[in-house]
Amino acid sequence: MKNKFLKNIEWSILICCILLLVIGMVALYSATQDNGNSELKKQIVWTTVSIPIMIIVMFIDYNKIAKISPILYGILMIALIAVLFTEPINGAKSWFQINEWATFQPSEIAKIAFILFFSYTLVKLQNGDKREINRFWKLLITVLIIAIPAGLIILQPDYGTLMAFIVSYIFMMFAGGIDKKFIILATVVVIIAIPLSYLYILPEHAKTRIDVFLNPELDPRGSGYNVIQSKLAIGSGRLLGMGLLKGNQTQLGYLYPKTTDFIFAVIGEEMGFVIAALVIILYVVLITKSIYVAKTSKDDLGSYIAMGICGIFTFHMLENIGMAMGLLPITGVPLPFVSYGGSSLVTNFICIGLLLNISGRRQKAIFID
């Protein structure tokens, strides 16, 4: 049984994860020369913590994990409330300060709790028939499950993480068989809501980010500074890069924050187009393999969990790389396995553990329509 489980595992997912982690470590080594490689050392510590957690998650049947998801969801919602009473860091109340060098971001782990609980609830609501999810009152339950963490995250505020939750929800609802009319209705609501949110809901700093995204030259020494420096860094790397420890924007302090939001710019400048393209290819493989795991899962629960994780990785990859290249607004979303961040790294490894868990228990010949 154990041999069959290990044979079924989609090991390419883990390989992509390790390669991205290695590239991230190399980029962090170069980007943290000015502070004695502080973030790199912390990232190594978090990696040694995350890998055993991934292995534990990989071997515990995901059905058993899903059964305790209501408890996990409840605990994380309490944590999201509690974090609102902390001192803001970089303008957001998103972190608990553990000690002088470590923080904990509950919204990261809340992604896992949400995916597990929402997948578990979706299966219960369908009761064996995917058409059941299109009943109005059942749709309201799914909206409530996403609305609670979404509302708490807005209060922090952390709009990047909010969008990660929403994209994950959309991926799972799509896999759950939501009717096309609701997709069209939601699209219309979003189209109407975007300009209204910009005019009446978004705070001034969020509006400024959007304005600067559309035209960075509006404030080249203020809000537009980071994205201009990021684009300069990526462009100056050309095909093979300027070499480790030799990037102008990276080493002279023009690129900020270079270990989190703009780590892709460090890779583009010092390692060049070849490695930057490799990073994108690795994410594409990771995402497509996640979809494959969802399609070949032995049950709907595994399929929904895999699709929720796929949504998280898809959004983070597109948003982080997009904002580094000036194609999307800056939201402070980290690049999975590459950017510095303990909570993010633990969360990402748990996601990988769940994907390996689901793939090991699948029936490869069976595809879910």
Q: Give the helix proportion (percent range).
A: 55-70%
State the helix count: 15
If you compute it from the alpha carbons, what radius of gyration comes out, rounded to the nearest whole angstrom? 21 Å
Q: Are there runs of 5+ residues with pLDDT below 50, and where? A: 365-369
The figure for the number of domains is 1
Write down how many β-strands occur, each being a DSSP E stretch of 2 or more residues: 2
* Relative strand content: under 5%
Quick check: average pLDDT? Answer: 89
Strand order of the largest sheet: 1-2
Query: Shape from CA axes?
Result: globular
Q: From N to C, what is the helix and strand string?
A: HHHHHEEHHHHHHHHHH
Q: State the end-to-end CA separation.
A: 27 Å
Q: What summary fits the major beta sheet?
A: 2 strands, antiparallel
What characteristics describe this protein?
single chain; 369 residues; mainly alpha; two-stranded antiparallel sheet; 2 strands; 1% strand; disordered C terminus
